[in-house]
Amino acid sequence: MRLPVSLWLPLALAVAAVASVAAGQSPLQRRVVRDVLEYFHGRSNVHFLFKERDVDGVIEREDASGTFVQLRLGLAQTACRKRAPQRHCRVLEGRRKPTCLACYKFDTSDVPKVLDKYHNCGPSHHLAAKEIRQRDEAECRAVEEAGKGGDTLYLPGMFAFSRGLPA
């Protein structure tokens, strides 16, 4: 029996998120991991399921505009096809092990909404290239600045301009 991706992918991601709880991650970090896995599996060139291998380089900073989370997620290819998932998918040794850099900015509400995000997934050596690393750093800085002053929502009446009558 074949299940559509929309039915089994959230279940697979939930299992991955439960596994990451043991790693002592914050709820926002687990949410970022789940979103990155969903993004990665949604790409057209990915045909196999990938599991979380490791999470490192975690940065979580709070400020008045919200919470910024940055992490590197190591993935490992499994034997299961993306379109035909199974309960137990074993990790294939010596296969692709991409790394994803994720930067997310959440607002300060009770149920945090994503203000801005950036992710870049590729082979580990690809993300280590100087040009790509510099672009990633610039993109993450821009994500971290989301919600601060310059891009606030404009509401009518915030600014009032009046013109004096000619004398």
UniProtKB/TrEMBL annotation:
<keyword id="KW-0964">Secreted</keyword>
<dbReference type="GO" id="GO:0050994">
    <property type="term" value="P:regulation of lipid catabolic process"/>
</dbReference>
<keyword id="KW-1015">Disulfide bond</keyword>
<dbReference type="GO" id="GO:0005615">
    <property type="term" value="C:extracellular space"/>
</dbReference>
<protein>
    <recommendedName>
        <fullName>Retinoic acid receptor responder protein 2</fullName>
    </recommendedName>
</protein>
<dbReference type="InterPro" id="IPR046350">
    <property type="entry name" value="Cystatin_sf"/>
</dbReference>
<dbReference type="GO" id="GO:0006954">
    <property type="term" value="P:inflammatory response"/>
</dbReference>
<keyword id="KW-0145">Chemotaxis</keyword>
<dbReference type="GO" id="GO:0031012">
    <property type="term" value="C:extracellular matrix"/>
</dbReference>
<dbReference type="InterPro" id="IPR029562">
    <property type="entry name" value="Chemerin"/>
</dbReference>
<dbReference type="GO" id="GO:0005102">
    <property type="term" value="F:signaling receptor binding"/>
</dbReference>
<keyword id="KW-0395">Inflammatory response</keyword>
<dbReference type="GO" id="GO:0045087">
    <property type="term" value="P:innate immune response"/>
</dbReference>
<dbReference type="GO" id="GO:0030154">
    <property type="term" value="P:cell differentiation"/>
</dbReference>
<dbReference type="GO" id="GO:0050921">
    <property type="term" value="P:positive regulation of chemotaxis"/>
</dbReference>
<keyword id="KW-0732">Signal</keyword>
<keyword id="KW-0221">Differentiation</keyword>
<feature type="signal peptide">
    <location>
        <begin position="1"/>
        <end position="23"/>
    </location>
</feature>
<dbReference type="GO" id="GO:0006935">
    <property type="term" value="P:chemotaxis"/>
</dbReference>
